[in-house]
UniProtKB/TrEMBL annotation:
Source organism (scientific name): Romboutsia sedimentorum
Name under which the protein is recorded: Nickel pincer cofactor biosynthesis protein LarB
Lineage of source species: Bacteria, Bacillati, Bacillota, Clostridia, Peptostreptococcales
Pfam families reported in the protein's UniProt record: AIRC (PF00731)
InterPro entries per UniProt: P2CMN_synthase_LarB (IPR039476), PurE_dom (IPR000031)
Domain PurE: 117-246
Amino acid sequence: MDLKKILEDVKNNNIDIEYALDKLKNLPYEDLGYANIDHHRQLRNGYPEVIYCEGKSDEQILGIIEKMKEKDSNILGTRCRKETFDKIKKIYNNAEYEELSKILKIKNHDIVNIGKGKILVLTGGTSDIPVADEAYYTAKFLGNDVERIYDVGVAGIHRLLSRRHILEEARVIVAVAGMEGALPSVVGGLVDVPIIAVPTSVGYGANFGGVSALLTMLNSCASGISVVNIDNGFGAGYLAATINKLK
């Protein structure tokens, strides 16, 4: 069933709107040769497609942005190089860049807050901030009230405990940590909300590029913790936003 026939059938009352929306969820994607842009992802998943910039050329990224802008999509890019952003900014004046997290943002329409509560992003140390900021800006761009508390790791646990009232106000918590990755387990013993653990590659040799933190988080004795991949702040922010919009 093509788009024109769906619209004609709705107009002539041959099908109802709910049926039409169900059919539209599978339409369409746009083939650019190097990318298939899923313009209807927001209909299915609630959020538009996000551009993973790493490994793509500047020309490919600009091509994807152009086609998404034609559909009036808000555009979020992750792992965007500063040099790439500089080229984008010359074409799109409303483009914004978060240098630490390498997040690219282009708002083509207002972002509506659809979150039901607050998302809280924590880090064990200052070195974890680039990954945490990726989670923060992702969740915020997807329409959430997001707060950050950084450098509250287990080496000085009183720094976290002094902010316990903020932890208790959150609906979802993203806990970002490298080294041994103990922060999510500690937080898990203090709150009754979902915790998304993010291991980072921060640490010395036996950290194995974040594997030690990943294993600690996967083996946490605290309940209610999910774990994303090493340095995957985007995945954590996206998951937190998905949880926070549930009724």
